[in-house]
Each structure stands twice: as structure tokens, then as C-alpha cells.
Structure prediction request, 301 residues.
Amino acid sequence: MSLDRDSAIQVASVLNRALPYIQRFSGTTIVIKYGGNAMENEELKNSFARDVVLMKLVGINPIIVHGGGPQIGELLSRLNIESHFVDGMRVTDSQTMDVVEMVLGGKVNKEIVALINSNGGKAIGLTGKDANFIKAKQLKVDHASPEVQRSEIIDIGHVGVVTKVDSSVINMLTQSDVIPVIAPIGVGENGETYNINADLVAGKVAEELKAEKLILLTNISGLQDKSGAVLTGLSTEQVDALIEDGTIYGGMLPKIGCALDAVKGGVKSAHIIDGRVSHSTLLEIFTDEGVGTLITNKFLK
Prediction:
């Protein structure tokens, strides 16, 4: 499709503005947690895939870690398997874990791989069980309820936390010009399978690789202060203070916590961005404005 002169000049201007960012980030690794509306809306799905392919073409190494909670819930419902949650986490018995692995490691993972490939990329899907590259252990929940006077430790089954990431597996793929697409499933010491929060996996992968950026796609415009205004740039110390004073609470705590841990662990910056915005990943990387909250360690220049 040909462009008129004014449109062509606008396209050239956009590319020119992006050039310094391309030069700065070429050769770096960026870990993206993909989920929420960006993974369900057809237009957003395609814009995300094109963003990832473009990043790879300009020399950036994107690594995708995806969720899939709604898809898991849908299949469990169709199979008449009831879902139970403790503090927002799905109780995962052996039967539920089979469904989780089938949905995350199979259906969802391969759909994302196919989408990236159909947009000109070269993606390969894997779970943490492939080459045992994500080691995990069982998560025990310290849960407080009105019925008990003190907290109790609850076993929620095959839900895990990351203990180790083998970066050599991911490096082998990126050096082969491949885009890794990772399902958040880990393996225990004795071969047990664990379902792990995708934000936490993305953070640990980014930390192990000392990535340039960790980007978490969300269904909100970014981290907000108590008046509802988006906080566009924060240091790790400021984030700690916002947690302490209650500005960050509830469901945002795990997401912010993994971003904070990643930056403190060597990732140069973490971004909580609005996945409901088309091409939000490119806007965050290649423009000054961005579409969310940037978290950095103030000692990094």
C-alpha cells in the first residue's frame, strides 16, 4: 500500500525518533511477561506479535513468559473440575495440574508461537521441564482467616516457586536467532511438576540473564498513587516506601514484588505497562513517553 507524501514523512519521523533507542538496546535482552487483555484481544495479540518480531529484527533478544489463568479456568469448567483459590492462587491437585500443563505447555504456548511465526518471527515454545531449565519447589501459603486466631500453613498442591533458572538453555536459543516462548511450569528435585506464577518466572528469568528490561503487561495504566495518578518513574527505595505506607497493596503486591526483586537482582529496569494499548511494548522501549511505570535502581545511571 502506497503512502501519500505527508504520511510517508510521518513514518520517516517515527523511525528517526526510534533510532537512538534501537542503537541503545540492540544486543540486549528484554524479558516480557505476556498476559491479560493483550493475550485475549485479537488486535492486541497481533500487535504484540509484530512488536516482538520487530524487536528481534533490530537486534534485541526478546524472551516471552506467558500466563493463561482464564484459559485454564475455562477448560477446568468444561471438564467439571471445580476451581478453588487461596489468597488468589489456584489450589492445584494432580488432576488440576494435568489440565494446567496441557493448557499452558500445549494450547496457549503453541498459539503464541504460531502467532509470532505467522508475523515473520522464529519462535520456539518450551516449559521449565524442557532440559529441566526451571527448577522449583512447592509453595506453602501462610494464610490468615477470620475463623482462626493465628495464621496457618496451607498446602495448595502443585504450586511452586522458582529455585533456579538454567540460563544456558535460553542463551542457546537466542544465539540461534530464536525467540523463546516460556510456559511457567517448573520441575522439582524428584521430577514433580509445578505451576508457577508467570510474573515470578519472568522476574527470575530476567534476573538470571541480567536482562536490560523486565516488562510486565497488565490490564491497568501503571502503578498509581493514592489519588489515582499513574507513577511513571520510581526508584526501588520509593517502591519500598509505597509498599510500607499501603499505596501498593493486595493483588499488585506480587507483581510489584517480582519487579522490585528483579531490579535489585541486577535487571536494569522493570516496567509495569498497559497491555490494553496497541503496540504498548514498542511505545515503552522506543519512546520517551511510555505507557506505564518504570522502576530502576537509583544507583544505575
